[in-house]
Amino acid sequence: MENNNAPKHLYFYSVGLSYKKADAEVRGQFSLDAVAKTRLLEQAKIEGIESLIVTSTCNRTEIYGFAEHPFQLIKLICDNSNGSVDAFQKVGFVYKNQEAINHLFRVGTGLDSQILGDFEIISQIKTSFTHSKSMGLANTFMERLVNAVIQASKKIKNETEISSGATSVSFASVQYIIKNVEDIGNKNILLFGTGKIGRNTCENLVKHTKNEHITLINRTKDKAEKLAGKLNLIVKDYSELHLELQKADVVVVATGAQNPTVDKAILNLKKPLLILDLSIPKNVHENVEELEGVTLIHMDYLSQLTDETLENRKLHIPAAEAIIEEIKEEFVTWTKGRKFAPTINALKEKLNAIKVSELDFQSRKIADFNEAQAEIISNRIIQKITTHFANHLKDDDTMVDESIEWIEKVFKIKAS
């Protein structure tokens, strides 16, 4: 007869998609803004997920969390974005247990970033964890794991040169502009969007082009004014976007909108125009390329631009991986002990219950039964048996989750 009260076995998964297999358009379908992330976490609580964090950047949308089956987590992403399960199956990934832990370490330390050594993702992971914890969705395992990844990230940043040199999407975009636009110092540059990428791009433009004709537009004007004040730039109202687009020689779009904010309908060009779209989802409609004189460059292309800096960074990958292995080993040792201790304790209780029952039976059956000696012998046998199981579970080659499941099934126990 099937035991409907059998314990649920949860596994640690990393599910999601990234720039490696999903282009910008597909990543845009699965992107999650702040509201969508909160909605996803609320749904996770309702559906009984005990612990997870969710990240969504221009390069990836990923969930790290516990579930019986990865589809529970994939469904959360699809339910709260414009992506579909079919699309996810084509470009998404699923990592389980140790592979999932490995993946989070590589993401958090910049080894899995589109631009090697880009450490911006670690701040996203920190923020995601804080968000989950505030909603009661971060268990001890998750907290310890995230702290281990943060520790590895700091150590790699401080002890290797994997993030040395200036290279990022914002830097690559400015390099592209300088190489492809003649007399850039005298051209009209319009920057639309002053989020993190927009600010970084703006600072690089000022630093490397010496251009004094840079105009900023942002939906929230005071954010643009704050940046403009630092760099002595011009700010225009969002309502003037269509007018400023006509004046510009170069437009950098870095907004966080979920739909295109620039298309051919609002362009009335009288000269060539270079547009760089640094947004995910894309914020410039591809129909602008139907207009003569328009060149549209997306961040995916800019991210592929490699230079000496990136080649030099690759030399430091082995040192970074050695640091990850050192910190990951400490975490795995902690989590293995934490994971199997309840099972070993439950096994000991089960064997003790068998011992008590058997000693009671034998004491009534055998004349002059020496219960004290039997107690000592039985306890030593139980200790040796549980030690054997504990040593098996500590072994590096042991599949801990599967072994725990087997022990609990054979001895009909449930770890608390």
Top keywords for this entry?
416 residues; alpha/beta; six-stranded parallel sheet; four-stranded antiparallel sheet; 16 helices; 10 strands
Describe this structure in words.
The chain has 416 residues and is an alpha/beta fold. It is built from 16 helices and 10 strands. The strands form 2 sheets. Strands 7-6-5-8-9-10 form a 6-stranded parallel β-sheet, sandwiched between helices. A hairpin with a 3-residue loop joins strand 2 and strand 3 (60-67). Helix 2 packs across helix 3 (71-79), helix 5 packs across helix 7 (140-159) and helix 8 (169-180) runs parallel beside helix 9. The longest helix has 49 residues, at 317-365.
Fold blueprint:
Blueprint: E1 11-18, H1 24-30, H2 34-46, E2 52-56, E3 60-67, H3 71-79, H4 85-91, E4 93-96, H5 98-108, H6 120-134, H7 140-159, H8 169-180, E5 189-192, H9 196-209, E6 214-217, H10 221-231, E7 234-236, H11 241-247, E8 250-253, E9 273-277, E10 294-298, H12 299-303, H13 308-314, H14 317-365, H15 371-394, H16 400-410
Parallel strand pairs: 5-6, 5-8, 6-7, 8-9, 9-10
Antiparallel strand pairs: 1-3, 1-4, 2-3
Summarize the structure.
The chain is an alpha/beta fold. Helix content is 53%, strand content 12%. The strands form two sheets. It has a six-stranded parallel sheet, sandwiched between helices.
Rg for CA atoms:
29 Å
DSSP summary, beta strand count: 10
Quickly count the helices: 16
Oligomer: single chain
Mean pLDDT over all positions: 88
Sum up the overall morphology in one term.
elongated
